[in-house]
């Protein structure tokens, strides 16, 4: 059994002189939730879109279940994508979007009804189900994206800033939905700036800064990598800030 479900191997991507990713390698295993964390411009979206084959790296390869994704068509990649910007069909209502996804993924009518009703109920979308996207608030558009990404049948969900625009209750609901997926042995890579939240549901973290990995692993292993006291009760935010500071010191030393 291939332990690594999705593997990112020595990926580099430059936009002219801008280094978006530099020899980045990491893997995601079955049934884990991995937090992709880093400041603005760290390379998180570039990494996610490379896994989706939307961006072609300058060098390196991505493997899905041991196969190079270059050799796999989109429909063989059981990867769902929750983009940071809403994407929708202007002429379909919210509910029509959801049934459309069910049709694409060959749900039976019964499965489709149950799944759509479940997600509408969870995300409190009932009063909006007959609206067109341009009549939805920013947060409700985001919930539509979330619902679509969860209805797709996937092994890995790549979620780019999924909590942005959600109210506190819905942030909690989305976290619960992610944990339900994990119980079904699905994997999730979630990019977020909400570190207090991430540490309540992520198993591991990949910390990026300026296109480079500055730490990866569980919070405990990040604490070991940072020079913080191992026994102390450090928040993920403290640990991440320490790793960032160390990476800046390293940069200064090599200048
Ligand atoms: N299409 C593009 N053309 C030029 N530069 C780009 C392009 N897309 C991204 N970049 C640059 O690549 C770097 C990584 O960007 P990316 O969007 O991957 O970061 P991010 O970690 O997702 O940031 P944020 O948290 O702000 O969303 C940044 O310096 C960004 O300015």
UniProtKB/TrEMBL annotation:
Residues 6-235 form the ABC transporter domain. SUPFAM superfamilies: P-loop containing nucleoside triphosphate hydrolases. Gene3D superfamilies: P-loop containing nucleotide triphosphate hydrolases. Coiled coil: none annotated. GO terms for molecular function: ATP binding; ATP hydrolysis activity. It comes from the Bacteria. This is ABC transporter ATP-binding protein. It comes from Proteinivorax hydrogeniformans.
